[in-house]
Design goal:
The protein is mainly alpha-helical. It is 50% helix and 11% strand. Residues 160-200 form the Zinc finger CGNR domain.
Length: 200
């Protein structure tokens, strides 16, 4: 099973090992012909709920964004278009580091997030970059851009693999160099069943 119910919305299971990869996995079947059934982020409401599901935004922020999106449909649709552009570019540059056009797209969104972020001290005394609440409907986009930049700037990016399962292509971190499938229980099992059928 590749999905779970979150606040009444179907959401892809989190199995990639990094929020940036989870963003890429909101599209199903990267190597297959495009179609609306492949899209998990079907509306701004889906995006907001997914952002909490992926740990990028807290519940209170999402609860504030959802009615705001209803009141500003044009702005919400613009954010949805931009998040999909960021997602595609991140996917492409992760699988092909030489793709400069994809990198420039990710960098543009990341620089926008960096220009918006504020350095704040938390209760433990540690400072961290945070996105201000007045960023409004852009918050999920900026949070995704931040995590995409973080991923591209760490050695983890070299461990990213794409699942070879039929109609999949989801990305994941292969920390031990032995992982082949996004999920052994789903794509791996399907392949085993198909191989068994082929042999018999």
């Amino acid at each position: 099973m590749h999905w779970v119910d979150v606040d009444g919305y179907p959401m892809p299971v989190l199995l990639a090992g990094h929020p940036g990869l989870e963003l890429c996995n909101t599209w199903a079947g990267w190597s297959e012909p495009p179609g609306p059934h492949r899209e998990w982020l079907r509306s701004y409401q889906h995006l907001a709920v997914w952002s909490r599901h992926a740990g990028l935004l807290d519940a209170a922020t999402v609860a504030r964004l959802r009615p705001a999106a209803t009141g500003e449909p044009a702005a919400a649709e613009r954010v949805l278009t931009e998040i999909r552009e960021l997602r595609t570019a991140l996917h492409d540059v992760l699988l092909d580091p030489a793709n400069r056009a994809a990198f420039r797209t990710v960098a543009g969104y990341a620089e926008r997030a960096a220009a918006t972020a504020r350095l704040r001290v938390d209760a433990t005394g540690l400072a961290r970059w945070t996105l201000p609440g007045d960023a409004g409907l852009d918050l999920p986009l900026l949070a995704c851009a931040q995590t995409a930049a973080e991923l591209l700037g760490t050695p983890t990016r070299a461990l990213v693999r794409a699942c070879p399962g039929d109609d999949c292509g989801w990305l994941f971190v292969d920390t031990r160099g032995r992982r082949r499938w996004c999920s052994m229980a789903v794509c791996g099992n399907r392949a085993k069943v198909r191989a068994y059928a082929d042999r018999h």
